[in-house]
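Hi support team,

I'm filing this because I wasn't sure whether my run with adenosine monophosphate finished correctly. The job status page said complete, but I'd like someone to confirm that the output block is well-formed before I use it downstream. Pasting the exact inputs I used:
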Amino acid sequence: MSFKELGLSDPILRSLEDLKHSEPSEIQKQAIPIVLSGKNIMAAAQTGTGKTGSFVLPMIELLQNQAKPYRKHVHALVLTPTRELAAQVRESVYTYGKFTSTTSAAIFGGAKIFPQKSKLKKGLDILVATPGRLLDLHNQKSVKLNQVQILVLDEADHMLDMGFIHDIKKIIALTPPDRQNLLFSATFSPEIKKLAQSLGTNLVEIAVDSPNSTVSAIKQIVYKVDKNQKSNLLSHLIHSEQWPQALVFSRTKHGSEKIAKKLNAADIHTATIHGDKTQGARTRALREFKEKDVRVLVATDVAARGIDISNLPYVVNFDMPTYPNDYIHRIGRTGRAGKAGTAISFLSIDEQKFLRGIEELIDSKIPQKIEEGFKPTDKPESRSKPKNFRSKKSGFEKRQAAKKGKGDFKKSNTGSKNRSSQNKKKGSKAKTRWKKGKGA
Ligand code: AMP
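And here is everything the job wrote out:
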């Protein structure tokens, strides 16, 4: 099936031709006709499947023949979890719509607000925004959402993971109830389904990869390795296997800087991208990586969500992701648009539980390997208390015990018993969160 047969018109077909997108991807085949028919969709699609085109192309088609929006108004609103994804979606709007008169902009936090205000002044066909900055600009009366005809929630699962649900609800309430809704998510939890159902009726469900499945083109390997050997193993693999480029995920901002320092010291040109960096530094690191001036980009999950780097051959989970869904998102950076890719995960002894969660979610076992010279020797941490273990009493408890004397020992003991049962409760809450994470 061709793009033309899907109902797209000449100016859009021309830009697709320029981009050498000769055939629609599976999600595009399924979603484009439904979006053009004005229906609501809930689509399970990972990044790398062409999902951006599946909503941007029909949106441009629908909006190009309409009257232009009034001052400060927007006709289509795309919400994304991160600045990077917002910028990237806007870039797609620009490229797909370059032979149309579609107007668009991206607004997100961490960038100066004044230039964003001036972009909104004339009104826009398509606005791509992160929720927080959009609400800021709405509160400052710089944007009006009461003429939104199409609302897209891109990477809805990430937005919920990042705690945007209240902002999203506020934004939805500012838009007209008869708008068209398009919801995209790589994974589907009950919360996402609830959100989708709250958006409206005549919801059409689309799934290209079954939700929670990993992209089949990606080769996955787990390397068992000691925690303190991970950096050495990474530079060894990059050198010995001559990786042209790799995106490395670290659990923390501090960790990502440490990895970059080690790799740079090993003559592997590395940049980092995380929440402590300025927007300018993040954009520059991403650009240099895309232009292949930088060989390795070390990122935290939040910073790397949704970023599209074509021909990325390797993704490395330096730390196993705590939430199984993050595994799917992380490795989805490679193996894009049908290309091959390898996803490598470093597993230290304390991370076994995370691997179990991931394998349960993807419903398959990931092959494990030990690299020569990196045989793990770490032992699992013993759960038993050390010999000189003494339960710590709070200052308050000590004072109470001193006041009441030895006779009351039993009583104060009961207090600590209560506390330990509280701790147990806390533990069970943490477990529930972990379970939730798996489904999120
Ligand atoms: P996405 O899943 O939207 O992040 O897209 C992933 C990559 O696939 C992007 O680099 C797109 O430019 C590319 N792409 C999207 N649609 C097509 C298509 N029909 N043919 C070839 N490449 C595509």
